[in-house]
Specification:
single chain, alpha/beta, Rossmann fold, Hypothetical Protein, Haloacid Dehalogenase-like Hydrolase, Chain: A, domain 2, eight-stranded mixed beta sheet, six-stranded mixed beta sheet, 9 helices, globular
């Protein structure tokens, strides 16, 4: 079956170690467009932190979509939200309490801003990489609901215990490491896989016509959903086990070139 949609993670997948999308990958995206294959960027990053990358695709092709916050939001090319889920206000208040008791930084997200009690070294490291503003606020509960919540700390035994405790307490939420030192909490309906399914449904694209590419635990849901799920060479073993195909490429080696030659340009 012809592939019509490729959904690609950003960090450690499409973005190289210097923070750019290589020219080789951009050239492949142009070639894919000419063959009628749509490319969608999908990330745990907020929408505003994805814009500089999605703009590169906008300059190459026509209407496009962006999946952010690990599947909690989908924007169209006009910047309009066409799909959204949130962590509800009561859950946010409980997470704030847990943060206060543990001393571990909690980040909340609203309107392209990350809200924290204090901008410390963990937050500074995060916003530098994500390229988004952070705002200190004494009472985080005034934020209400949040697109996602993120505990930001060092990856250690204490942090892993926090993750396990959160999973036990909040059975209805999706809780996972987006990377070591980051525990993400999103709505039970939020996942990259669910977002890809929603987008495919409105575009009239079948599951078998989709390739999803990623490297992390937060990519597993879309890797499993896709007709062909691809894990990067730099993926953890647990992610590779879920994939239909494991790429020979890491995030510095133009993975889309491999995907194009193996799955698209085969006739």
């Amino acid at each position: 079956m012809k592939i019509k949609l490729i959904v690609c993670d950003l960090d450690e997948t499409l973005i190289n170690s210097q923070g750019f999308i290589d020219k080789g990958n951009l050239e492949v995206i142009k070639n894919l467009d000419e063959r009628g294959v749509r490319v969608v960027l999908c990330s745990g990053r907020p929408y505003v932190a994805m814009k500089k990358y999605s703009n590169l695709i906008e300059n190459i092709r026509g209407p496009y979509y962006t999946i952010s916050y690990n599947g909690a939001l989908i924007h169209n090319d006009k910047g309009e939200i066409i799909y959204s889920t949130e962590v509800d206000e009561s859950t946010v208040k409980r997470l704030i309490k847990i943060s206060e008791e543990s001393g571990i930084t909690l980040q909340l997200y609203k309107d392209g801003v990350v809200y924290v009690n204090k901008i410390n070294k963990y937050v500074e490291r995060y916003i530098k990489r994500a390229v988004m503003p952070a705002k200190e606020i004494d009472d985080l509960s005034v934020i209400g609901s949040s697109y996602k919540a993120l505990f930001n700390y060092d990856f250690c035994e204490e942090f892993n215990k926090l993750k396990n405790d959160l999973i036990c307490e909040f059975e209805g939420l999706n809780i996972f490491y987006s990377e070591p030192g980051h525990i993400e909490i999103i709505n039970s309906l939020s996942s990259k896989g669910n977002a890809v399914k929603y987008l495919a449904d409105i575009l009239g694209i079948e599951r078998e016509e989709i390739i999803c590419i990623g490297d992390g635990y937060n990519d597993v849901s879309m890797i499993e959903y896709a007709g062909c799920g691809i894990a990067m060479a730099n993926s953890p073993a647990e992610v590779k086990e879920k994939a239909d195909y494991v790429s020979d490429k890491n995030h510095n080696e133009n993975v889309l070139e491999e995907v194009y030659s193996k799955f698209i340009n085969i006739n």
